Amino acid sequence: SLGLRLRPAILDDAETIIGLNRIAFEPYISQIGGTPRTMLADYHQVIEQDHVWVVEEPGSLIAVLVLSLQDDHYHIDNIAVHPEWRRRGLGKALLNHAEIQSRRANHGEIWLHTNEVMVSNIRLYTAMVYEEIYRRTYHVTASIYMRKRLR
């Protein structure tokens, strides 16, 4: 392991997570035609109400995962990886962690959404057997809602 640690987020992480989201999602603002909802969230509130994990290397947070409980499943509200740490399997590891949490909670499926401009994300989710359920337009582009069956 690269000296990385996955742990539940604490309130003290909120500002750092907000900064991480800014770095991760700002490049998409012009493509999406608006600010991604993950950049607008109050992470003090998110940490209190949802299940949030962070990946840290000594001295800094480099990734975040947010699971919100819906009626009978978790929805991955956010996975953000610092650009310098992309393409090293962190996104996939966080998706696997989300699935483990879902199975532990005895959920039969897990949901997520991404934007149609985030092609590499869609490729990863498809490779991990998520299927598109529907699309909803925000700003000028579509959010793609996807689901993976766990049993």
Helix content: 25-40%
Give the C-alpha Rg: 15 Å
Globular, elongated, flat, extended or rod-shaped: what is the shape? Answer: globular
Give a quick account of the main beta sheet: strands, pairing sense, barrel closure. Answer: 7 strands, mixed
Structural class: alpha+beta
Assess the beta-strand content as a share of residues. Answer: 35-45%
Give me the number of helical elements. Answer: 6
Sequence-ordered SSE layout with sheet pairings:
Layout: E1 5-8, H1 14-25, H2 29-32, H3 37-40, H4 43-49, E2 51-57, E3 60-69, E4 74-81, H5 90-104, E5 109-115, H6 119-127, E6 131-138, E7 141-149
Can you walk me through this structure?
The chain has helices spanning 14-25, 29-32, 37-40, 43-49, 90-104, 119-127; strands at 5-8, 51-57, 60-69, 74-81, 109-115, 131-138, 141-149. A hairpin with a 2-residue loop joins β6 and β7. Strands 1-2-3-4-5-7-6 form a seven-stranded mixed beta sheet, with helices on both faces. With 151 residues, it is of the alpha+beta class. The N and C termini lie far apart (30 Å).
How would you sum up this structure in a few lines?
Helices cover 34% and strands 35% of the residues. The protein is of the alpha+beta class and 151 residues long.
Provide tags for this entry.
seven-stranded mixed β-sheet, 7 strands, 35% strand, alpha+beta, 151 residues
